[in-house]
Every structure is written in C-alpha cells, then in structure tokens.
Amino acid sequence: MKLEPEILRHLWPHAPQHKIDVICGLSEELFEEHGIDDVSVVVQLMANISHENGAGTIVRESGNYSGPRIIQIFGVGKSSARVTEEEAPGLAHNAQALFNRVYGLPGSPKLAKELGNTQPGDGYKFRGGGDLQLTGRDAYTRIGHMTGHPEIVDDPDLLADPAISFRVAVAEFATI
C-alpha cells in the first residue's frame, strides 16, 4: 500500500511539495514495516495526521494563542494545567512561557509527570512536534529510539524533516 502524490496534494493543498513527495516515497516501506495493510487504517492514520499537522503545514505547536484561546484549551475545567483567567494574558502570544507553564514544572506538575517533562524548559522543548504533534520528553525518547532517531530528544526541531516526522508519526500511530 502506498500514498499517491496527487491524492495527498488534494488533501493538503498548501503543504510544501517536498513534504508530499517524501511522505509518498516512504509510505509503502513504513506501512509494511508497521503492518499497516488495510486501506481503512491508512485513511484513519492520514486523517489523524492531517488534523494534527494542519494538512501538512504545521511542524511544531506554535503557542501563538490569545488569552481567551488559552483558557479554552488549558483553562480550569479544560486541562490539568488549570490556567486561570488572571494568568492567560501573561501567557498570550508567548509560546515559551505558555508551554513551560502548561506542560512543564513547576506550572503543571501532574501533566509534566505524565509527559516525562522533568527539566526546566522541557514544556517548551517537548511541545507538540511533527506530523502527529508528539508531545513530552517520554514520547520523544520512546518514539525516537523506536524509529532510529534518538537525536530528536536533543534536537526536537529535527521533526521539521518530513522523513523523520512521517516515520515518527507512523510509528506512534502503530503503537496506539
């Protein structure tokens, strides 16, 4: 089973052509490696990827959120981060502060522990990245080793490489 560039271009009209070409070139090998041989599973995988990566346009979680949007996503009753109305303006449009607060220590000890974020700055460093928006030190470590790309722990921005990003996404999906 293999993804075809014209189909992916139709699904992702604003994605870089290079990304589409790389993903289509790797798809057959990766689907076989992970035992993905059912078209409905491929559809589910690509629907998840398309949602998480903005139809091929998002590489890392931006964090460029307004105060009201932060409350919608990370507010009290929405997330264990429990960002308050008073905090949100100070986090708005400040990705590093936002992700260190909601995914890291000391801001969100419960979620930080679940994600394996143990060091100062881990919340921002291990924010959503790649085609399925891999999040947290533990996930980067586990999937990085599984895919032969342990270097993503030291440099999460390597998920900008479409080959690494798609390999990581397929492996992550296959482990669910």
Describe the 3D structure.
- By secondary structure, the protein is mainly alpha-helical.
- The protein is built from 10 helices and no strands.
- The protein starts with a helix and ends with a helix.
- The mean pLDDT is 97.
How would you briefly describe this protein structure?
The chain has 176 residues and is an all-alpha fold.
Q: From the alpha carbons, calculate the radius of gyration and give it in angstroms.
A: 17 Å
How far is the N terminus from the C terminus? 20 Å
Structural class from helices and strands? mainly alpha
Overall strand count: 0
Q: How much is the average pLDDT?
A: 97
Low-confidence stretches: none
Shape: globular
Q: Work out the oligomeric state of the chains in this entry.
A: single chain
Number of helices: 10
Residue share in β-strands = under 5%
Largest sheet: none
Assign a percent range to the helix content. Answer: 40-55%
Q: Helices and strands, in N-to-C order?
A: HHHHHHHHHH
What keywords describe this structure?
single chain; 176 residues; mainly alpha; globular
Strand and helix layout:
Blueprint: H1 5-11, H2 17-33, H3 39-52, H4 67-74, H5 88-91, H6 95-103, H7 109-115, H8 122-125, H9 137-146, H10 162-175
Helix pairs in contact: 2-10
